[in-house]
Specification:
The protein has 99 residues and is mostly helical. The chain has 3 helices and no strands. The two termini are 46 Å apart.
Length: 99
Amino acid sequence: ILRKVPEDMQSRLNRGMDDYEDYPDGRAASIPSEKDLVALHRKTIRAVTNQHRTQIQWDILVERAFGLEDLAESEKCADRQFRSTFPQHYTGILKHICT
């Protein structure tokens, strides 16, 4: 299950685990069943997928915001030439098609 979680997320999770190492009321941790582990595995996969999806949506939103900002700045320029904050770098065949 832990191999499904990216390393940066694992380090963030491990930072807050100090409080959970000792049980103040003397209870021992119960051993999870195979069914519990399967459910945890499914939830882990779903959470990682949602995190990736959210990160991609955020990246697209930021790129769109920069594009709109570049468009507004280009309209203000006297020479009316579009200048992108982050120029596109094409490689391979796209370099010949897109330029």
